[in-house]
Amino acid sequence: MDCLFCKIAKGEIPSTKVYEDELVYCFKDIAPITPIHYLIIPKMHISGASEITAENSAIVAHIFETAAKIAKAEGIQDGFRIITNCGDNAGQTVKHLHFHLLAGVKMGWGPESVQAVE
Ligand code: 5GP
Ligand code: ZN
Fold this sequence. Notes:
This protein is an alpha+beta fold. The protein has helices at 4-10, 58-73; strands at 17-20, 24-28, 36-42, 80-83, 99-103.
């Protein structure tokens, strides 16, 4: 399967690693929108949040556990935001489940952060 994030998880495409274990890989986003912008992905291919099932949902708990661990290890003390975009309306561009970990700046919240674009 021709999947960018599968290739990144396998090291076939270079990335800046933040954390890795047998189940997940975390790396720096190539186009950060906050001073700290990491992506946390399962090593197994799941196309997005809409494909989470009873069989594979344990990985989501592991990803959130990993996010908390990474935040502590990276000294992120003032808060962080985790986002997953699913499908075209949400702006998902890479069809491999990934969680954006955003930090390093005070972020706004409200309707303007989900402004309609078309
Ligand atoms: P999405 O838009 O699907 O929620 O997020 C995809 C993210 O992947 C974007 O923030 C984009 O900057 C990042 N991205 C796309 N291609 C690459 C790449 O080759 N390397 C890295 N490190 N990030 C990428
Ligand atoms: Zn994949």
